[in-house]
Amino acid sequence: VAEAAARANRLTRLGPSQYLIPGLVDLHIHAPQFPQMGKNLHLPLEDWLQKCTFPLEARYADQAFAEAVYGELVATLLANGTTTAVYFATVHLPASVALARICLAKGQRAYVGRVAMDNPDECPPFYRDASTDEGLALTRDFISEVRALALNGGLVQPVVTPRFIPSCTDRMLEGLGRIAADTKAIVQTHCSESDWQHSYVLSRYGKSDTEALAGFGLMRQRTVLAHANFISAADMGVIKRQGAGIAHCPLSNYYFSNAVFPLRRALDAGVHVGLGTDISGGPSPSILDNGRQAIAASRALEEGVDPAEPPGERRRPGTRIDFREAFWLSTRGGAEVLGLDAGVFRDGAPFDAVLLDLAAPGSNVRAFDGVDSHQDVLEKIVNLATRANIKGVWAEGRKVA
Ligand code: GUN
Ligand code: FE
């Protein structure tokens, strides 16, 4: 193969400081929150939504604003190595379709959802679906429009997207479950994210998010559950049986979740898990960043965080992950949640790849001959590589950054 490529003048040889890794998978991004990334991290989730986030998302009624922001965001994510991205857009149909179109034009494999939210008790009048029926109709229209985009050979797919249980009425949740079954579009939502959110669902239904979502037909093959911090062992069983998966968002969780996701337990239970930036709950566009935050969070969980507690009560032994799991979550783990044959280099798999150069200008990471094994280099990449190291990005064989 190499000789044939060389003869055709199409062979690229990696230099001694260069490494090729599979494309990164970001399972949870709020595209409209990009202008808020890096600020407004001082409030609890419920106040942050009402005071900061819903007013920002309401602005995407302005199509020109939406297109400008979404173009910048997709370019930023590609430059950070994200070849597959799962997005929440907003309630607005035209702006949500624009996000899908921008991903397609820039060559990013993308799953895009128009956000459904109709509960007048939890959503302000300036930012919600005008009615349940209208929200359901817009969701159906969105799915048809994205599937019909010119040149969309399946690179960009629509997602049924109830924001989370609190922002939806029962009739909306039932209707979205029916749409998912009818259209075979995948589902994404937030699940048991914070103390407030988890207890809201418990008091509304007397059951967990996982059980309630399953009851509405929303816990399906490849359903992407963001966060899932407070899921029980029984919830994990339901998620695994249904073939759903979890977008672990470690950086966001530090700010909004009140707890560390039990990642090791989920992995040991055989639940599909990948990583999400949760822009702008998480202030980083980088899955590499979130991989190292997943390691750090698992170590904090294992060792405990409150020095006033005695060691025996502070610790949760055996809950750490290391760089190997972080790398897997960033690539293959995310792909498995989506049922994709990506995240790994294999004959016949789509060529989604990131070219890293440890000798790039601005690199914080070096490998030393005679000192670092291949495994050491991978550990250093997981812990230290930044956008400065990313020299090229390919999605489905097309150079996208
Ligand atoms: N739950 C409902 N909406 C949101 C959101 O925009 N961000 C996060 N982190 N959690 C949510
Ligand atoms: Fe989120």
Summarize this, please?
With 401 residues, this protein is an alpha/beta fold. It is 42% helix and 16% strand.
* Major sheet details: 9 strands, parallel
By DSSP, the count of extended strands is 13
Describe the oligomeric state of these chains in a short phrase. Answer: single chain
Q: Would you tell me the structural class of the helices and strands?
A: alpha/beta
Bound molecules: guanine, fe (iii) ion
* Shape field: globular
The helix tally amounts to 15
Q: Secondary-structure element order, as H and E?
A: HEEHHEHEEHEHEHHEHEHHEHHHEHEE
Poorly predicted regions are none
Mean pLDDT: 97
- Tell me the radius of gyration: 21 Å
Q: What is the percentage of strand-forming residues?
A: 15-25%
Helix content: 40-55%
The separation of the N and C termini measures 25 Å
Features of the shown structure:
401 residues; alpha/beta; nine-stranded parallel β-sheet; four-stranded antiparallel β-sheet; 15 helices; binds guanine
Layout of helices and strands:
Blueprint (H helix, E strand, L loop, with lengths): L1 H6 L10 E5 L1 E7 L14 H14 L4 H17 L2 E7 L4 H14 L2 E5 L1 E2 L15 H16 L8 E7 L7 H14 L2 E6 L3 H11 L3 H7 L8 E4 L5 H10 L2 E4 L1 H7 L6 H6 L3 E4 L11 H17 L7 H4 L8 H15 L15 E5 L16 H11 L5 E6 L2 E2 L2
Parallel strand pairs: 2-3, 3-4, 4-6, 5-6, 6-7, 7-8, 8-9, 9-10
Antiparallel strand pairs: 1-11, 11-12, 12-13
The site of guanine has 12 residues, from helix 2 and helix 10.
Give structural notes.
It is a single chain. The chain is of the alpha/beta class. The chain is built from 15 helices and 13 strands. The strands form 2 sheets. Strands 2, 3, 4, 5, 6, 7, 8, 9 and 10 form a 9-stranded parallel sheet that branches. Strands 1-11-12-13 form a 4-stranded antiparallel sheet, with no helix packed on it. α9 (233-242) links the parallel β8 (224-227) and β9 (245-248). The longest helix is centred in the first third of the chain and has 17 residues, at 63-79. It is globular. The mean pLDDT is 97. Residues 28, 30, 190, 226, 278, 281 line the site of fe (iii) ion. Fe (iii) ion binds next to β2.
